[in-house]
Structure of Signal recognition particle receptor FtsY:
Amino acid sequence: ETLDQGLEKTKSGFLSKLTKAIAGKSSVDDEVLDNLEEALVSADVGIETTVQIIDRIEKRVAKDKYLNTSELNGILQQEMENILVDAPEAESYTFASTLPAKPYVILVVGVNGVGKTTTIGKLAYNFKKAGKSVLLGAADTFRAAAVDQLTIWSDRVGVPIVKQGMGADPASVAFDTVQSGVSKGADVVIIDTAGRLHNKAHLMDELSKIKRVIQKHIPEAPHEVLLVLDGSTGQNALEQARQFTAATDVTALAITKLDGTAKGGVVLAIANQFKIPVKFIGMGEKMEDLLVFDKHEFVDSLFS
Ligand code: GDP
């Protein structure tokens, strides 16, 4: 799906609340601001980011003395973009770009069910389409279903996969995968991991063990640690981002399932509150449904 189609629910909820917020009002007053705040929070922009946006609009109201409600949409859009000015961005990222290492190793982390496997499949598809050779590693060995799902994606996209038996040591699978990637001369190695958050110390140990064994082959690897978050869970996604970034060095974010949810505003909260670029957004279950995130396009499409 396209960005506009995918964001339909977030957009219609948000725009209708915005329209209600200014109904019957000619100037932006406290009541309008309160309603605006509510509209942002209900689109899951989150309290912290919402307060920042409202503060900026309040300052403009104070400065301009009188702000016409007809200008509010434009001003809101500007201020939503302004709060993202400092948000790091995966600058004009393309799958065809030359990667800084070969193989380029991406470790994918996230809680079960967020769309990790699907995102890996979509990434593999995009890299392959851009002419790169891809190798997958099934290091989520705790669930047989995870290995099965990744195998289905490897067949679907037509890229090889390294796996071991159920219950195998994830670090051992990661080791084998990178070794095979090196010997095959793969361009990209994408490794799935188990996302068990119930025990932070355990998660940290497991991820650092995986990193250590990967580094036996390639000292600079993993080149990317991609955290996958389910956008349809709204504020839960923010909480998971907090926990994972505390447990390991996450270098990029993917936010999935933005199609069919009214909570798409969470992308703004995540982009604003974490100093980690949101690189990809998931807009459906098919391999074509992964978009490279562009903050301006994203805010624009909320208003179009
Ligand atoms: P994992 O447990 O994190 O590996 O999650 P999966 O990749 O198996 O995905 C869980 C479910 O979410 C599956 O039914 C996927 O088809 C679905 N899913 C993943 N990404 C998206 C997305 O961007 N949009 C929608 N609508 N569904 C998605």
